[in-house]
Amino acid sequence: MWRHRTLVASSIAIIALAVTAAAIIAVQVRNNRRLDRITRHAQYVHDVNQAFQLVRRNELSEAVRLLERHRPAPGEEDDRSFPWYYLWRLCHFRPRTFLGHERDVYHVEFSPDGKTLASSGQDGTVRLWDAATGQVLRILRGHVDDVNYVTFSPDGRLLATGGDDGTVRLWDAASGDPRSTLGKHEGWVTCVLFTPDGRRLISGAKDKRVKIWEIDTRREQAPLAPGLEIEGMALSPDGRTLGTSGWGPSVTLWDLASRRMTLSLEVKTRTQSVAFSHDSRFVATGGNDRIVRVWDTEKGRLEATLRGHTNQIECVAFSPDDRILGSSAHDGTVRLWDVASGRLRKVYQGHSAPRSSANRVWCVAFSPDGRTLASCGRDSKVNLWDLSSAQDRIPISIPGQSVRSVVSSPGRSRVTAFVLDGNDGIVAEMDRDRGELLNTRRIQAPSPLFDGVLSSDGRRLASASVDGTVTLYDTESGLPERATPSPGSGLSIPRAGSPPWER
Fold first, then answer.
1. Among 238, 297, 237, 295, CA closest to 271
2. CA distance 285 to 287
3. In the 8-state DSSP scheme, what is residue 311?
4. How far is CA 322 from CA 139, 241, 275, 444, in A?
5. In Å, how far are 189, 401, 477 from 420, measured between CA atoms?
6. Which residue(s) pair with 471 in the sheet?
7. CA 73 to chain centre
8. How far apart (Å, rounded) are the C-alpha atoms in residues 364 and 237?
9. How would you class 118 by CB atoms within 10 Å of its CB: exposed for 0-12, middle for 13-18, buried for 19 or more?
10. I need a labelling partner for 448 at 20 to 30 A (CA). Which of 27, 240, 423, 464 fits?
11. Distance between CA atoms of 376 and 119, rounded to whole angstroms?
């Protein structure tokens, strides 16, 4: 009998011990899972921040590699939120691409009616494309070397080209048949421009000369001698002023009638491109120092200095309404700037090739209606970008050190982010459509913060402090509403659902 009592007592003790052990193990498993989740979230935040920097440097494949780490396997919880999807879209946004050139494409331009796109390149050809379908309409051959420039006459009936063979040629735009060779430079022809009345053609070359040709008679008028190798040229819309740029410290404006210099813009760098606004009020320049400059054409005053490219600039162009300035560079990007504010609006990153130097974007051009942007580069591609797309908006710079949570208001352009900044945090509101930081509010916690998550409407913030306290804040005032001591529990980050574009 005592033997049985001893056995029963032992069994009860063993069961109690097992229950206690199971409870301890359950708590430990729960804590381990919570710790694992916090660790995973910390790695997610780190990788998203790194991907953000990689996207800004146009290192898209490396950014994709980091983002790929956080695509959940079947049955796993999904920690991804707005920043991940936003960067993923930036990495995978693609233009319409026209393929056909065999090597570098140096220049691209729309016809006056916007229906045809002309491109010229290192393969010695000029190609005419249907701008809507991408179909090659005609291939023009005649130059014996690189074709550096192609342009339409104001009525769209003629094409003019210039190339490394030094010749300036005219073509029938409808048939693609050669019309005439106007003449020849002693160096590469880098630019050709029709005057607004279509009666003359202006050509600039490496021989440091600008020649002016009468199209009907093929006679050469008195030339200009800028004294520097010509890299870029632009003609004011009224046809009175010619801008030249190249291997020199200044961009020069000339009175075309008198052949006299009217203004010298001291850029202090080799300048590849110059462009007039359509109202003739401004001139934009871009060159080796990676800076886009905007000048007042009457006073010669520098109005804006636009920085963002990480390599030398090849081309600048104004949109038809003069509200946007486009630029392209050797960093593989096309950038759009707001002319009025000087703010960077968008970045396109669609030119790349295996070689490190193959990311050059040689030229950008707006369609006549301003809805499409064309670009071409060393990768042999001609890209067409839809300017109405919101997928390509650049990341907005906000203060702080580490972005922890971002929410987007449904049906609105407002985005709210929570950013750690030292021991405190910052709540930042942005307008994603305009690419503007609207305001910031500092969250000052009694104990250093290590994480935080915003409510779906951005009005509340749940933060976690190093002392184990979870605090709910009103983001409008930055003041705490209530705090809950939760030693050892950390912050439970809610599962992020897939956004509408992923469904």
1. 295
2. 7
3. S
4. 32, 18, 11, 44
5. 55, 6, 17
6. 463, 483
7. 31
8. 19
9. buried
10. 27
11. 8
Nearest alpha-carbon partner for 95 in 349, 329, 390: 349
Spell out the per-residue pLDDT of the chain, length 503, in tens.
545 566 556 666 666 666 666 666 666 656 666 767 777 888 888 888 888 887 766 567 788 888 888 888 887 888 888 788 878 877 766 788 999 999 999 999 999 999 999 999 999 999 999 999 999 999 999 999 999 999 999 999 999 999 999 999 999 999 999 999 999 999 999 999 999 999 999 999 999 999 999 999 999 998 998 989 999 999 999 999 999 999 888 999 999 999 999 999 999 999 999 999 999 999 999 999 999 999 999 989 999 999 999 899 999 999 999 999 999 999 888 999 999 999 888 888 777 654 445 579 999 999 999 999 999 999 999 999 988 764 444 556 677 777 888 887 665 668 888 888 888 888 988 876 556 778 888 888 888 888 888 888 888 888 888 887 888 888 888 888 888 775 444 444 333 333 333 33
What residues does each domain of the chain span? 1-93, 96-386, 396-488
The residue behind tokens 């011990």 is 17
Spatial neighbors of 335 by CB under 8 A, at least 6 apart, are 308, 309, 326, 327, 328, 329, 344, 346, 347, 348
Task: With CA atoms as reference, report the closest residue to 186 among 234, 248, 230.
Answer: 230
Amino acid found at 278: H
Name the strands in the sheet holding 372-377, side by side, starting at the edge strand that comes first in the sequence: 96-99, 381-386, 372-377, 361-366
Q: What gap in Å lies between CA 325 and CA 334, rounded to an integer?
A: 10
> Sign of dihedral through CA atoms 224, 228, 234, 240?
negative
Q: CA-CA distance, 19 to 3, in Å (whole number)?
A: 24
> 193 near 184, Cβ under 8 Å?
no
| Cβ atoms < 10 Å from Cβ of 339 | 20
In this structure, which topology does domain 96-386 adopt according to CATH?
Answer: Methylamine Dehydrogenase; Chain H (2.130.10)
Q: d(Cα 91, Cα 94) in Å, to the nearest integer?
A: 9
351 token code pair? 């030119």
d(CA 240, CA 259): 10
Token pair 């991804």 is at which residue? Answer: 80
- Tell the burial category of 26 from Cβ atoms under 10 Å away from its Cβ (0-12, 13-18, 19+): exposed
Cβ contacts of 118 within 8 Å, gap of 6 or more: 108, 109, 110, 111, 126, 127, 128, 129, 150, 151, 152, 159
Q: Would you identify the CATH topology of the domain 396-488?
A: Thrombin, subunit H (2.40.10)
Phi/psi region, residue 246 (left: phi>0; alpha: psi -120 to 50; beta: rest), is left
